[in-house]
Each structure stands twice: as structure tokens, then as C-alpha cells.
Amino acid sequence: MNAENENRVKILGVPMDLIDSGQAMALFEEKFPEPGLTMIVTPNPEIVLAANKDESLKTLISGADIILPDGVGLLYASKIIGHPLKERVTGIDFLMDILDYLEKNGKSVFFFGSKPGVARDAARNLQKKYPALKVAGTRNGYFKPEEEEEIVREINESGADFLCVALGAPKQEQFIEKYRKELRCGGAIGVGGSLDVFSGNLKRAPEFYRNHGLEWLYRLIQEPSRYKRMMQLPVFMVKVILHGRKQ
To answer: What is the pLDDT along the chain (247 residues), one digit of tens a residue?
Structure first.
């Protein structure tokens, strides 16, 4: 593991920004007004493992403007390799900071993904929390590959300033990267299951679980079918230890 630059370190070859949540928001506020689409990715240990095997995914992540460590396993891993990250910056918390920024600055957002009705319900609930937030549009995540160009047109015609894509990782990040030059939004982020939480379909872990890095346990209790995915964490830690010994 080598530092890519003074602001990023690599874990299993995948770069992470060395910033806390406040610095991450400051970086977003700096980049968002700039020309082009500001791409934000929030890799967790599972995504890092996938990128470690898939060079195209690693390249995609490396090319993002903001790379936030979303997973307590990444904090442990960074300490093991001797380059500790500042803190875990969860995608859902960062998204809420972004929505607050969009509301205060009169900007709009488009919610794309999840099951039918989820994006719409998430938007309605979020507008209760952010009354002045402009929702440019919503669309579910069920579509055929040949419909992608039509979806991009729909997003562009909505006039959305920011795009949230909930297709699951890494499909959501791949969609953003694929149409990065065509999308007219100022920024975009893959939000995973955040829309399910905002819609009320899925409960977020209580503060105790979040503060102690046990959000994964709460989700496992809610969704026992995720146990196979949870088994990736010990695999990730073993690879980090072995990789570190080779340096």
C-alpha cells in the first residue's frame, strides 16, 4: 500500500480520501460548481474486494472526484497498514449533508433507482425534512439496457442539478461513469439502499449501532439473507493483513 498523494491512501490498491465528514463537504462545495459532473463514490470493504479483482472497477473508483470510506472495516484496515483514515464517512450521512446544501442553495435533485414507488416516497419524506428542497424528478430502477439513453434524457430534461442513483453497487457507479459526460447534472452519487431508508421501507440502525460501528449487525438482523455478503468482511481483513506483509 502506497499513498497516491498526500490526500489519498490505497487499501488493496483502491484509493480513499483522507478526510473527515466536514472536509468532505467542503470538498464537495468546492467541486460542485465547477464545469462537468462531480462524481462521488462511497466504497465499503465489499466494493474494495470487488475492485481488487476487477481492474475496470478500480479505475472507475480512482477516477471519482470524492472517494469516501463507507465501512468500519476500512478504518481497521487503514490502521493495520499504518495509514489511518480520519473517520468513516457514510454515504447516507453525506447525502443528507448534500441535500441540506442543495436546499439552502436553491438547487434540485433527481432520485433514480430502487423498486417502483420507493424513489417517489423517499422524495416526499425528504421534502418534509427539507421543505425548500427542489425535486426535479424520480424514476424507479427497473429498466432494460436499451432504455438507458432515454433515462439520461429524462434526467437532463428535468433540469436536475444533482443525481442520486440507487441501483446497488457497483451498477450505480458504473451507470454514472458511463454517462458522466452526457449527464448535465453538477454532481452524482450512488446511494445504495438509502432511498429504502428515506422511503420508510427499511429502518436505519439506531444511533448506538452507528456510533459503535455495528450498523452491519443491525442490517443483518433486519435482512438475514445478507449473511453471505457479511462474510466478505473477514475475507477482506485477511487480504489486508496478507497484502500488508508483502509491502
So the answer is: 333 467 899 999 999 999 999 999 999 999 999 999 999 999 999 999 999 999 999 999 999 999 999 988 999 999 999 999 999 999 999 999 999 999 999 999 999 999 999 999 999 999 999 999 999 999 999 999 999 999 999 999 999 999 999 999 999 999 999 999 999 999 999 999 999 999 999 887 778 776 766 676 666 667 666 556 667 777 888 989 888 655 4
CB 42 within 8 A of CB 19: no
Question: Is 150 among the domain residues?
Answer: yes
In angstroms, rounded to a whole number, what is the distance separating the alpha carbons of residues 119 and 122?
5
Residue 72 falls inside a structural domain = yes
> CATH code at 203?
3.40.50.10700
Q: 116 exposed, middle or buried (CB, 10 Å; 0-12, 13-18, 19+)?
A: exposed
Is there a domain that residue 97 lies in? yes
In eight-state DSSP terms, residue 88 is: -
Q: 215: part of which helix (H) or strand (E)?
A: helix 215-222
Domain assignment present for 246: no
Tell me the β-bridge partners of 16. Answer: 9
Could you give the number of structural domains in the chain? Answer: 1
Instruction: Determine if the pTM surpasses 0.85.
Output: yes
Separation between Cα atoms, residue 118 and residue 166, nearest integer Å: 10
